[in-house]
Amino acid sequence: MADLAFTIISIALIIPISLFLGVIYAFLLRKFNARFQWRVGPVVRMYSDLAPVIGSTRVWQPMYDILKLFGKDTLIPASAHKRLFTWSPYFSLFFSFAAVLFIPFPGMPLLSDAPYSLIVASYLLIASILFTILGPVASGSPWGAIGARREVELFLVAELGFVASLFLVAFMKGSLVIAELSGTVGSIPMVLVTLLAGITMFAAMLGKLHIKPFDMPEAECEIVAGPYTEYSGKLLGTYFLAKIFVLYNMVALFIAVFLPPVSSSVLWLPLYVVAALVLVFLLAVVQVLNPRYAIRKALTWYLKIVVPLVILGFIAAFALRMVA
What we know:
Layout lengths: L1 H35 L5 H4 L5 H4 L6 H10 L11 H19 L16 H21 L4 H32 L4 H4 L6 H21 L11 H4 L9 H26 L10 H21 L5 H29 L1
Helix pairs in contact: 1-11, 1-12, 4-11, 5-6, 5-11, 6-7, 7-9, 7-13, 9-13
């Protein structure tokens, strides 16, 4: 009974925690990008008497943007398949939030000790991405269709690295339970294979989070807003909120699987925060240093880099299992 009560309390707490951290990660990505490019925001350059009007911090700017959208009109194109177009953002948000419950946070295992929690969490994240494809396809917009097609092509290669990196660690450690993966470090050879899988996972995150050079589905200068061209108001805000949760999930899942035992105890919370900040910083560095790839070049990059890493990782993991 005590364990059930603790789980319920943890689930209630993780809702604001995941939203807060997702907003912070999104803000830091924007802030790092701006600083690397020597761009200074209006709070620094504006007249000081205007600061009380717009606020003295931009930490909550990603959330401000979402709330602003919820206050605007929502337009549904006449050519759209209305039910699929309308419900896709909500399904995307639902699945991205549901994945939060299966990824541990320091001091809160949540549902990460449930059977096959690794499969459940990964499938929920995949489902969230799928509904960012189905909705735009249902919009009836050629720009949405082009963006959705690019999303599909990127999805296929990025998910390969995402799924393979997770199940490489699962195969090596002999478990599909995230709580068990995040609680063991293993031998030095196992750590090296985990490092290789972590590099593969990071490459997959670039595509799943649309970090340059893999932001071609949303190339504004080419296809307006890509998949989101016909979305507005609360539907667009819902999609952006889903992206906040996906960002949190990807960071949390990376730490849980590839940096054990950082997510296993509340005592590791300071290191968890540092690891999350470093990961977001690295994503920002990649974003700034690279121009956008053409979709064909992105696919070629994944096939040349990620596939060999996956094959090498599974060979090493299989050798470790044979020796053990």
